[in-house]
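quick one, 178 residues, struct below
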Amino acid sequence: MTTLTLVTGGSRSGKSAFAQQLAESIDAPRLFLATCPNFDAEMDDRVRRHRHDREGRNWQTIEEALQLTELLASRPAGETVLVDCLTLWISNLMYSAEQNHSEITEENMIFLAHQLGAAARHHQGQVIMVANEVGLGIVPDNPTTRRFRDLAGRCNQTIAALADKVFLVCCGIPLQIK
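---
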């Protein structure tokens, strides 16, 4: 049975740990789809810690910064896929667009998120996506950061609408909101 679950919350709220627990409660092969680009020593340490947290727990890891929809569409039936995280995917999309002298608009983001959600709904297995809730703080002081916040909000809304379950994690406590 296909189930799409979105787990959201603030930075260091416990959302990734909760999403991993959800995935590990499912008796199936597991794929960790990591979107974080590895660009400095501190990030190397973070990636190492996250990999260590999954050791010996039947996880395969694929690092993919941009092509989440295509990768998800190619996964075998019965596999549980944990995408961590959509917020970094958005950052990667923005960076890639900038390198190509273009821009991701809110309409683009809704389209891309809908494609990703559709691929998740089509996957014959469980899909859990993690995303930061970045819209609860102050209004950013520059256009790029405001656009990032807006794109993250649009992505989260689109995926949440397609999801069977949505959890908000606050202070390590998951609250099911859908």
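Strands lie at 3-9, 30-34, 59-63, 80-84, 126-132, 165-170, 173-176.
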